[in-house]
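RETRY 2/3 - previous attempt timed out on the joint model. Re-submitting the same 518-residue input unchanged.
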Amino acid sequence: MKMKALARQYWPTIVLFVSLLAIWQLAVSYSGIRAYLLPAPMSVLESLWAPEVPWAQHVWTTTWEIIGAFFMAAAVGVMLGVAIAWSPLIANALVPFLVFLNTLPKVAIAPLFLVWMGYGIFPNMLMGALIGFFPVVINTAVGLSQVEADMLDLGRVFNAPKWLIFAKIRIPNALPYILSSLKITATAAVVGAIVGEFVASQRGLGYVIVTTQSSMNTSVAFAALIWISAVGLALYGLVVLVAHLWAPWAEGID
Amino acid sequence: MNDRLIDLDKVGMIYEAASGPVEALAGISLTVGMGEFVSLVGPSGCGKSTLLRIVAGLRPATAGTVKVAGRQVTRPIADIGMVFQQPVLLKWRSILQNVLLPAELAGKDASGLKKRAHELLEMAGLNGFAEKLPRELSGGMQQRAALCRALLLDPPLLLMDEPFGALDAMTRDDMALELLRIWGETSASRKTILFVTHSIPEAVFLSDRVVVMSARPGRIAADIRIDVPRPRTIESRASEKFGRISLDIFKLLSNRTEATTVAA
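RETRY 2/3 succeeded.
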């Protein structure tokens, strides 16, 4: 029954996807377009497992960078959001600075990271975190402040201390907002990790794409793209799942 | 019943708005006896809700003195239960956990009050709903849960700010009857209730006294004793006395509101 419903919802997607692949395959086979310009889907598929590329190692590296970026952005974002909601003084000090930071094209900072930190996984994590933390700050601060005035009066009647109001009312109230911003962070972490690898790396899926430029091995570049989107989709799906389990009362908040 | 629980003496309230100071309340002198049910009625913006919050110590009066149980109110007083127009339940907590919230906020042992919370829910006709989330309950049921929450710590004073204002008319009448039953209108240990409402029949049906307020600045226009016998039933609403008192209050209010509408 459930399978039937799923099939009914997604058959147009599947039909579209399969026909595009078929057209692509036929176009490449019959037009004689050269493989380094546009490889056939079948050869991309083969490249996904091609033994000459150590895929496992690259996927592993990039996955780590994305996960690190994601958790750094989440932790720093939530902490800053709480600080902003906690004290107007901190908010006045931090918000203009964060807005300034957010207007910088963060991608342009990546070469600086290379100068400061050299090669490695960490600067790439940091790049992802830098791109992904801002929405978390904003959503955390908003979620913490969107509490009914009457509810806060209730807290005041019982002389509840500020930290208790945060723990019992404000933070749970902010949870759906935070989880919603983490969906954006999940995709931002992928962008950051790949950009970091473009600029400086010896490993990872971004590195694979850069190297195919010189080797003209376009089907490997396509395969790397598929791996990147697989990792990104998995992370996004996990965030959606966690949001569903953790804040079931907030379905449809975004 | 002669003990004064609430004692307001020439209470005034002026607040600063963008357009300058606004006088919300002026010269409010009012006493409410222990176990009395007193309603405040008046046009929108007459400061009824503000007055309720002044009694709770949530907002300071700018003139006069406010005493509850003989003590001057200068900050929020813990010995009250509050019910608002909206149920303001925490969406992520079960009904039981919502009812237990005051204990947690007051730093008391919530698990020790579980039995009382269950008793309150049963009394409010909500047994079987303790583990449900607020969104699974109707508006009227949510408001009953909010009433249970207000009663958890057994406060001698209940402050209710248009608690049935967001409900449909039929649920509203049911809730008024329910409130009287839960309040235990004929028992000696009944709580003192200060009740803000827009509805004249509701105020007359529930109250021992109805305090009629005029609009901006809010003043007491009349303080009317409702000598309709208790326990009150649906039939009470049909009595000649009920109709006469309601009409008197209606006339009082319509005169005042007309005057202020012209002024505004």
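The radius of gyration of chain A is 23 Å. Closing ticket.
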